[in-house]
Specification:
Blueprint (H helix, E strand, L loop, with lengths): L1 E6 L3 H8 L2 E8 L4 E12 L2 H7 L17 E15 L2 E6 L5
Antiparallel strand pairs: 1-4, 2-3, 3-4, 4-5
Length: 98
């Protein structure tokens, strides 16, 4: 499970409530290296997990802390990974475990 924080009031949250399919991409463009995780997003509602993910300084975005109604954690359950290492690439389907 991968968790990302965002604002409950954001347009992306409205979109994900309608269609939970997501892709998350990270790259180092100067090296032509990158990885994409694709799968389904869901919303974390467990207070303990929201507290565990919390980072100092986020009060600027969520003034009342982990209980702020605009504080949302998105969980990514990846089903595909695709990557690039220069001119080489890889692509694999992932299966949920546990």
């Amino acid at each position: 499970m991968y968790g990302l924080s965002t604002n409950t009031s954001s347009e992306k949250v409205r979109h994900l409530r309608h269609d939970p399919r997501v892709a998350l991409y990270y790259c180092l463009p100067e090296q032509t290296h990158g990885v994409m995780l694709g799968g389904q997003a869901s919303f974390v509602v467990e207070p303990d997990l929201k507290r565990a993910i919390w980072q100092p300084g986020w009060e600027i975005y969520f003034p009342t802390g982990t209980e702020d109604p605009d504080y949302t954690i998105l969980q990514l359950l990846p089903s595909r990974i695709r990557g690039w290492l220069g001119d080489r690439s890889f692509d694999a389907r992932l299966e949920a475990t546990g």
